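Title: Request for sanity check on Flagellar P-ring protein prediction

Description:
We are preparing a figure and want to confirm that the structure record we downloaded matches what your pipeline produces today. Could someone re-run it with the sequence below and paste the raw structure tokens into this thread? We only need the token string, no images.
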Amino acid sequence: MSLSVKAIGAFLLGLGLFASVPTYAERIRDLATIQGVRNNQLLGYGLVVGLDGSGDQTTQTPFTVQSIVNMLQQLGVTVPFNSSSLQMKNVAAVMVTANLPPFAQPGQMVDVVVSSIGNAKSLKGGTLLLTPLKGADGNIYGMAQGNLVVGGAGASAGGSSAKVNHLAAGRISNGATIEREVPSTIHNSETITLELTDTNFSTVSRMVGAINTRFGMTTASAVNGRVIRVKAPQSPDARVAFIGELENLDVTPAVQSAKVILNARTGSVVMNQTVTLDTCAISHGNLSVIVNTENTASQPAPFSQGQTTMVENAQIEIKKDEGEVILLNRAATLADVVKALNSIGATPQDLLAILQAMKASGSLRAELEVI
């Protein structure tokens, strides 16, 4: 068995042992979110200045020059717009993104991410100029400005260069100031709506039961397998206290459906605790083709006026390892499934094909998802 199979087997076996532990209750805040309490995405276009010759090549990014000219005109500086005469290697055009948290108030600070949209080599050491941040409705909700922190390094000399991490993006901690509050609808209705992160009718039923047991039998009602409506007090103080207590209620979630995730690019295989395996027989063998090419020179006979030519001598060899039929007994737990698959001695890439064949034959009792 190869080392990679052993490593993956040990990892999955650990998951199996962990999955065998009895399920504990989780808080409602970990299983569901409240409708209307969400982040909002902000976006802005700005300029980063103060770069050490690593900014945009303005002949190839005319929008950088245009932005500089427009900014200087707003500051009272008249500059004739001529992209061929303006060579500013210390400036870069960037996009600025941020998350506006729920209930954020004017004056609060949030982090921003700054990413180059031109051909700047690096944003290290740059300063973001005042940039308005807009929401999906087109309104300005924040203003960003500050010095960038770029988590990378690079150097070049004599035609050679070296770079560590990514230099075309950086971050500014507390780089944006909130200027507008997003209206909240959480107090506009007699009820609040809980939305589960995963659709599960059993979990919804258990959550409704836990809420009604704590606050009264008509407090919560299920809308579908994902949404629950909960009656809440009308006054803001009482509603906030009610939501705080509601989020901390313990609910034992239902067991998830059996699923196996296959990553075809990396060969990773991940299973959850409900995966089972029926009795089946598997034959696994390897076929390898080896091609060796040796180049030799063919010399003509003396005084024959012939020419020297190159001759390719190819040798092809096909090796086929003897296959072995292995009986996998019915497995009831994830740990047993992992042991059964590891007994085959296949590589992670081979497991992808084996699991797909087992699913097609009906032996794998789980949903198979390839990502």
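Thanks, this matches our download. Helices lie at 3-19, 28-31, 62-74, 201-215, 236-247, 334-342, 348-361.
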